[in-house]
Each structure stands twice: as structure tokens, then as C-alpha cells.
Design brief:
Elements lengths: L10 H6 L2 H12 L1 H23 L4 H29 L4 H7 L3
């Protein structure tokens, strides 16, 4: 194809400009988010259950402990997410998600 001159001059932009490709890209990139949320919330409820039922901690104190853990832990998600974005190889994982099959 290269010798015959039939190759695209801008393969990424010409391939990703169609509507079907952009819909496919957005669905592939956003599909893991609900699954992550389900796993995260399930973990929170298991932790709360463990603290209250297994360790026999007062329910109000157990809720406060879990809330404090969330408040303390949330900035780490932001910091390490930003660090991960800076360390990523120029967005190669994003391009891999968006590459049409």
C-alpha cells in the first residue's frame, strides 16, 4: 500500500473521525467506571459490616471510623491519579482504548 500511495496521510484522525468510532471509543473508555464504583462501594459496605458486626464496635463509632478513613483516603486517589497521568507514556493507554477494532 505504501509503494502504491494508497495509504492514508493521517491514519489516526481519518480513522477516528467517524461517528461509529467515537461512540465505540467512548463506550470502551467509560464502561469500566460503573464496575469500579460497584466494587468500591461493595468494599465500603464490607468494611462497615466487619467493623460493626465482627469487631462489635458501636454502630455510630463504626460509621465515624469509616467516614474518617474515606476523608483521609480521598486525597490519595487524587494525588496518585495525577501522578499516574504524568507518568503515563504520553497518553498511550487512552489511545489504546480509542483504537478501533
Amino acid at each position: 500500500m505504501k509503494e502504491e500511495g494508497k495509504g492514508s496521510k493521517a491514519p489516526l484522525t481519518s480513522r477516528s473521525s467517524s461517528g461509529a468510532t467515537s461512540r465505540s471509543c467512548s463506550s470502551r473508555c467509560s464502561a469500566p467506571s460503573p464496575a469500579r464504583a460497584v466494587v468500591w462501594y461493595t468494599g465500603m459496605f464490607y468494611e462497615l459490616f466487619f467493623v460493626i458486626q465482627i469487631l462489635k464496635v458501636d454502630p455510630q463509632f463504626g460509621n465515624l471510623v469509616i467516614a474518617a478513613a474515606l476523608i483521609i483516603g480521598t486525597p490519595f486517589f487524587i494525588v496518585f491519579g495525577a501522578l499516574s497521568d504524568k507518568m503515563a507514556a504520553s497518553g498511550s493507554s487512552w489511545r489504546a482504548c480509542c483504537w478501533p477494532p
